[in-house]
Design brief:
The protein is globular. About 15% of the residues lie in helices and about 55% in strands. The chain has a single domain, classed as Jelly Rolls, CATH 2.60.120. It is mainly beta. A hairpin with a 2-residue loop joins β9 and β10. The strands form three sheets. A seven-stranded antiparallel beta sheet has the order 1-6-15-8-9-10-11. It has a seven-stranded antiparallel beta sheet with strand order 2-3-16-7-12-13-14, covered by helices on one side. Strands 4-5 form a two-stranded antiparallel ribbon.
């Protein structure tokens, strides 16, 4: 009976934490319209908004909506993304951000009528890599794994089989804003939906190695 009681308490605590995760997160550039229903975030993406720094286009913008939580160590994060993309550069995805000069955004980007798996990595200036998809998709899962000074980014169409789309540098031992972003650089906005957002703590690799060597 005692074990059952503590199992029930733990179960209720986990359920409560999962249910409140989105409500406890913070907005950077809060959009005019958004809602949270259980584990689903829907946002009306702000028109004429984006994240980009300097390179190729010659301008810097930092004004798209981003719902985030703060993480200090290593973690795995994933989310299911969908949207009614309309015009060039409409995008939705995960974002990991240290500050205005150091961030990663990865997800779907609509370019010239086609869906692309897109990653932008910014360290003072931005770069952009894409994987063109052969047909439109209703949704995609994006996952990022932060380990030491690297972030691995994966995509999946079924939340079972994940394929790496980018491995990139991000300063370790620095707090990271991590969450869901969407942008509409060229258009008048669109609706983006994020489901099943999850973050899992990963033990620090350096500490595990120290413990192993100092048993």
């Amino acid at each position: 009976m005692k074990n059952y009681f503590w199992t029930l308490i733990l179960s209720l605590s986990i359920t409560s934490l999962s249910a409140q995760t989105l409500e406890r997160m913070q907005w950077f550039n809060e959009p005019e319209g958004w809602s949270i229903n259980g584990r689903t975030l829907t946002m009306d993406v702000t028109p004429q908004s984006d994240y980009w720094r300097v390179s190729h286009y010659g301008f810097t913008v930092d004004d798209a909506p981003f719902l985030y939580t703060l993480r200090g160590g290593e973690f795995e994060v994933k989310v299911k993304i969908s949207g009614n993309y309309k015009v060039r550069f409409d995008q939705a995805g995960l974002m990991l951000r240290i500050d205005k000069e150091n961030y990663i955004k990865a997800g779907i980007e609509f370019v010239d009528g086609k869906y692309n798996l897109s990653t932008v990595v910014t360290h003072h200036t931005s770069d952009w890599s894409v994987i063109e998809l052969d047909k439109p998709i209703d949704f995609v899962w994006i996952k990022a794994v932060r380990r030491l000074d690297a972030v691995e980014i994966f995509y999946s169409f079924d939340d079972k089989h994940y394929t790496m789309m980018r491995n990139c540098w991000l300063q370790d031992n620095s707090p990271v804003m991590v969450g869901m972003m969407a942008a509409c650089p060229d258009g008048n906005g669109f609706r983006a939906t994020f489901d099943e957002f999850k973050i899992k703590h990963l033990p620090d690799q350096r500490r595990l190695e120290w413990l192993k060597n100092n048993q």
